[in-house]
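Our consortium's second objective concerns turning raw sequence data into structural hypotheses that experimental partners can test. To show how far this objective has progressed, the report includes one record in full. It was chosen at random from the queue rather than selected for favorable results. The single chain below, 141 residues long, was entered without modification.
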Amino acid sequence: MDYDSIDAEGFGRALSGLGLNILVRDVRATSAFLKGVFGMSCHQVTQDFAIVRYGRQVFQLHADGTYHANPLLGLLPENPPRGAGIEIRLYDSDPDAAVGRAQEAGHTILQPPADKPHGLREAYILDHDGYAWVPSRPKSV
């Protein structure tokens, strides 16, 4: 699928499985964060929308204003953090490298890289909306 040229109807029809749609205040800023820290590819980035690819996974970013008729809009807090209680786990990302890039860009590191008892090395990085992005990899033996 060509994510740079597909129209909204074609994209919607092609979706399957589990979907993730993240409401953000600034689509362009979140796209830059995801590209810069995690190397994700962002397509059709506008002030309202972006298609994001992480490996073979695809998800969407939507600006608040695009949800004017959606029942979730009334539940959004006016100030971050928005994502309290959700971890967006990126199992194919090096937490040490991601934290280094995030620190260089001035992002908040909630927890530095650490080996966890469940077999992963992971870190917690907050974006400007307060979503927790968790780069994770199997820890070294």
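The partners drew two points from this record. The chain has one domain: 8-138. Strands lie at 21-24, 41-43, 49-54, 57-63, 87-90, 108-115, 120-126, 132-138. Both points have been shared with the crystallography group to help prioritize constructs.
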